[in-house]
Design a protein that fits this description.
It is a single chain. The chain is α/β, with parallel strands linked by helices. α3 packs parallel to α4 and α10 (238-261) runs parallel beside α12 (314-324). The protein contains twelve helices and twelve strands. The chain has a seven-stranded mixed β-sheet with strand order 2-8-7-6-5-3-4, sandwiched between helices. It has a three-stranded antiparallel β-sheet with strand order 9-12-11, covered by helices on one side. It starts with a strand and ends in a 7-residue tail after the last helix. The protein folds into two domains: 15-235, Aspartate Aminotransferase, domain 2; 239-327, Aspartate Aminotransferase, domain 1, CATH 3.90.1150.10. α4 (86-94) links the parallel β3 (77-81) and β4 (98-102). Pathway: Amino-acid biosynthesis; L-histidine biosynthesis; L-histidine from 5-phospho-alpha-D-ribose 1-diphosphate: step 7/9.
């Protein structure tokens, strides 16, 4: 089976991380370091922030959940975009918050409409950049203007799960924004470009007062010993990260060009996936499964005519394009 449904790195786990996780298993009879000291040291050095600005999570999804639990009281407001990551709504529901889902603009965030939706009882805004599942990207200037416009009592969770895949011209320094805005949380993950999806490890960066609240709510042993060791190794494996970026850059272009030739519409993506319009999404999805290819249905986002395809290895990309050829519009 060719697995192109979950935006995983097609290179898999880096060998450096595999070795580190295997070695860490020797100590798996003991509880993990509840503070993640070694990983926080590595992240502190990489990001140039103090260790007490960091919160480790079971994937970045746990950081999203913690943000809702810490920042929002039952009945208060959470704002996010219509096609924002499905966990935003779940996190709001788990916190018994009131969700305001703002209509999208060109399948991405409409920051002006989101700002207008922020009310007196709004406590948290979720923004993903790039966005999943659409792949849309917000320019730094627009994001910064949005942050500057918010009242002091509103926290923003900036979800950067795919930030390592951004082109050089798209990159911006969100960590510098954390230093400026005491109500900003930047969430990142090792599941995507770093190839550790099965290890379930991510982190949040926030000023110490907010980070302390997140850590106070965080389960004590939420990140396993092998996951911490693998993340330290992956963070230091610059060659693997560069290879992952390049493979995605070339592979995404391969899929974009192939879909264009098939006359299948796709949304320009800044991540490691493409959202493609296929007509009857469930029908095409079933036929791809029958051909041994798994991609993502988007019914739960209200996008039944679309599928999301993870960028794979060159031969995997070619296989999904060949399988889609039967579903292309007639010329």
């Amino acid at each position: 089976m060719i697995l192109l449904a979950s935006n995983e790195n097609p290179l898999g786990m880096p060998e450096s991380a595999r070795r580190a996780a295997a070695a860490a298993l020797q100590g798996a009879g003991h509880y993990p370091d509840s503070n993640g000291t070694a990983l926080k040291h590595a992240l502190s050095a990489r990001l140039d922030v103090p260790m007490d600005w960091l919160t480790l999570g079971c994937g970045s999804s746990e950081i999203l959940e913690l943000a809702a639990q810490v920042c929002v009281q039952p009945g208060e407001g959470v704002v996010y975009s219509r096609y924002g990551f499905v966990v935003y709504g779940q996190a709001a529901a788990h916190a018994h918050a009131r969700s305001t889902v703002v209509p999208a603009r060109d399948f991405g965030h409409d920051l002006a409409a989101m700002r207008a939706a922020v009310g007196e009882d709004t406590r948290l805004v979720f923004i993903a950049n790039p966005n999943n599942p659409t792949g849309t990207f917000l320019e730094a200037a627009a994001l910064l203007d949005f942050l500057e416009s918010l009242p002091a009592g509103v926290t923003v969770l900036l979800d950067e799960a795919y930030t390592e895949y951004l082109a050089p011209a798209q990159r911006y320094d969100s960590i510098a924004w954390v230093r400026r805005f005491p109500h900003l949380i930047v969430a990142r993950t090792f599941s995507k470009a770093y190839g550790l999806a099965g290890m379930r490890i991510g982190y949040g960066v926030a000023q110490p007062a907010l980070a302390a609240r997140l850590n106070a709510r965080r389960p004590r042993f939420n990140v396993s010993t092998p996951a911490q060791a693998a993340a330290v190794a992956a963070l230091g494996d610059d060659a693997f990260l560069a290879r992952s970026y390049q493979l995605n850059h070339v592979g995404r272009a391969q899929l974009e060009n192939g879909l264009h030739e098939l006359r299948l519409a796709s949304i320009p993506s800044a991540g490691n996936f493409l959202m493609v319009q296929v007509g009857e999404g469930r029908t095409v999805h079933a036929r791809l499964l029958a051909a041994g290819i798994e991609v993502a249905l988007l019914d739960n986002y209200g996008l039944p005519q679309w599928l999301r395809i993870t960028v794979g290895l060159p031969e995997q990309n070619a296989a999904v394009l060949a399988a889609l050829r039967d579903h292309a519009p007639a010329r």
